[in-house]
Amino acid sequence: MQTIRLITFDVTNTLIKFKSSVGYEYCKIADLYGIKCNNENTVKAINSNFTILMKQLKKESPFYGVTEGINCNQWWHRLVVRTFSVSGIEMSPEMESKLKLTSTHL
């Protein structure tokens, strides 16, 4: 019998309510690293895409990447890159570097 090594809880909108949206907060942090996305359309796109992509990534890579040998920071970075990419932020090596800083900050 295996012992339980990790328990995670999703407390969003149950125990914790946020003052502002995911899109707003992500763009605010991204702006610190030179990613300009604080326009209404991008914030709305991030808001709608984030939840969809998180569910998708949880199916592809369960338990925040443990099953494929990545750590939770790498998993989260993958989610941030996908979210920004499908929300209209053009990807380049420079942008990927900025998003790495952004995801680490988040």
UniProtKB/TrEMBL annotation:
InterPro entries: HAD-like_hydrolase_domain, HAD-like_sf, HAD-SF_hydro_IA_REG-2-like_cap, HAD_sf. One of its GO terms (cellular component) is nucleus. PANTHER family: HALOACID DEHALOGENASE-LIKE HYDROLASE DOMAIN-CONTAINING PROTEIN 3, PTHR46191. This is Haloacid dehalogenase-like hydrolase domain-containing protein 3. The lineage of its organism: Eukaryota, Metazoa, Ecdysozoa, Arthropoda, Chelicerata.
